[in-house]
Predict the 3D structure of the following.
Amino acid sequence: MPFSPKRVAVFGASGAIGSAFAQECLDRYGTAKVFCFARSPERIPKHDRIESHAFSLEDLEGLQANAEAIKAVGGLDLIFVATGQLHSATAKPEKTMRSLSIASMEETLHTNTILPAMIMKHFLPLLPKHKKAVFAVISARVGSVSDNYLGGWYSYRASKAALNMLIRCAAIEMQRTHQSSVVIGVHPGTVDSDLSKPFQRNIPEGQMMRPAKSAAMLLDVISKVDQSQTGKCLAYDGTEILP
């Protein structure tokens, strides 16, 4: 039976991939309600089936309140977390260990690992217990320990590797109460976005994807994923990324 979610939550919905994913859900699922969350909700796309909310790690009470409100109207069938940070004004990818700093590492782990963990805590219980539902969070191929042959990018790699462990732990726990749920990490490919802009000159021609294409491919993966894949990290083409 095709996966056709009626209630979708998108975190990071003002970003390139998050906003494209929300739009793809609207286009693909004609009656779906999409709850969009972003630090800057005014940047969330406007649509009569979109309900916009502000959120941040500094407002955990607000995050819990939003979860309770959505639970009261029927819960969720699909949760997509598109939050993430590779660089900021104060945190840059470290090429060598000489560049490591506590502040930079804390900032990256805060965004890439702790925030998704808090979303898991409050929103995974909103998935139904007895039918297919999916929690998908953007991870990255560079979070694979076994696939790391170049080194560098210490904080980003570590934050995504830690996220992959959280995904695995959550998948195991959810199987005890929500046997039909699937919890996965997804690698979106190299997407034309603010995250990749400083590094685009080093990307081979033809490897850059538009956000809409990446979002569509990720939703294809999500629609086909099954119980045998819960706890894993999958690329945009459906292939598994090894831990």
